[in-house]
């Protein structure tokens, strides 16, 4: 049951990733869930905004904090299609997120198990529960398709 | 000479830290320098904005990218009064900042030498040159004074 709910929210994160692909952004999407409901959703917008911090997770956390009227997001979960990088993993700890659920692993830059595990570092003042691999194949496929088309000089058509 | 220039820019970062203290924020300040000139300056605004990512470094990087009209900040330096946390260290790598200069070390959460060194991780696709300890005593003192007064139940008066 918990697994089905995780898949349901990850599918919403995947929809966000599709929106990123539609504007030629690397397709990563995220949603923040509080009390069983999505309160924030975002997708990678680095190129569109020209903002180096505009990863899906950062934008979703900022939106959730805006809705929550406080930076402390205790009790909330973040779903993201790709394993967070060190910036985003650090932000999850700072926001005191309870749970992180991600889809595909990122062997090149992942900071939640691949290169390191920043969200469960016992030296930091908060640790995040992690579930990996939810809809992992689908989350990975949208990225692979995007880069394959980009290498071929074609725009990605979702 | 380079040392004097670093001190000069760190003094501007300290001015930003003072502005944070004036609004009861943990006093950390940052400036971004391009071609020998400050193009962005910011201070910690986590409580004021309610944004968990509103550290001085993130705000300064975002402002620099806005001025630069691109997320890639090659050739630029970031000066910050406190050793960056993992979120901010990750953001410096993503923004392709050339050089990081910081004042005081952060033994509890510092990710540029204290707990780890994210900006010089050979597995990531960019590395940052680091100079530590510029005006370190002054940068540390403003933080110590802030927390001392806060523990005593007094507001910080810079």
In order across it, which strands form the biggest sheet of chain A? 2-1-3-4-5
How much of the polypeptide of chain A forms β-strand, as a percent range?
Answer: 15-25%
Mean pLDDT of chain A: 96
- Can you count the helices of chain A? 5
Helix/sheet category of chain A: alpha/beta
The helical percent of chain A reads 25-40%
Overall morphology of chain A: globular
How is the biggest beta sheet of chain A arranged? 5 strands, mixed
Largest interface: chains, residues each: A-B, 40 and 40 residues
For the record, give the distance between the C-alpha atoms at the N and C termini of chain A, rounded to a whole number.
30 Å
- SSE succession of chain A: HEEHHEHEEH
Oligomer type: homodimer
Structure description:
2 copies of one chain form a homodimer. By secondary structure, the first copy, chain A, is of the alpha/beta class. Chain A is built from 5 helices and 5 strands. Chain A has helices at residues 2-22, 46-49, 56-68, 86-94, 136-151; strands at residues 29-34, 37-43, 77-82, 99-104, 129-132. In chain A, helix 1 packs parallel to helix 5. The radius of gyration of chain A is 15 Å and the shape is globular. The mean pLDDT of chain A is 96. The A-B interface holds A 46-47, 49-54, 58, 61-62, 65-66, 68-73, 85-91, 93-96, 108-109, 111, 115-116, 118, 121, 123-125 and B 46-47, 49-54, 58, 61-62, 65-66, 68-73, 85-91, 93-96, 108-109, 111, 115-116, 118, 121, 123-125.
Topology of this structure?
The structure is a homodimer.
Chain A: H1 2-22, E1 29-34, E2 37-43, H2 46-49, H3 56-68, E3 77-82, H4 86-94, E4 99-104, E5 129-132, H5 136-151
Helix pairs in contact in A: 1-5
């Amino acid at each position: 049951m918990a697994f089905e709910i995780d898949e349901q929210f990850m599918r919403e994160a995947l929809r966000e990733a599709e929106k990123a692909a539609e504007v030629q952004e690397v397709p990563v999407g995220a949603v923040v869930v509080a009390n069983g409901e999505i309160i924030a959703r975002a997708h990678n917008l680095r190129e569109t905004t020209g903002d180096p911090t505009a990863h899906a997770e950062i934008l979703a956390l900022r939106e959730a904090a805006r809705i929550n009227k406080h930076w402390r997001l205790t009790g909330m979960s973040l779903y993201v299609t790709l394993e967070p990088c060190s910036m985003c993993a650090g932000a999850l700890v700072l926001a005191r997120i309870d749970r992180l659920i991600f889809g595909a692993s990122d062997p090149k830059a992942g900071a939640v198990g691949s290169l390191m595990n920043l969200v469960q570092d016992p030296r930091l003042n908060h640790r995040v529960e992690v579930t990996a691999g939810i809809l992992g194949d689908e989350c990975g496929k949208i990225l692979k398709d995007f880069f394959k088309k980009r290498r071929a000089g074609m725009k990605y058509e979702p």
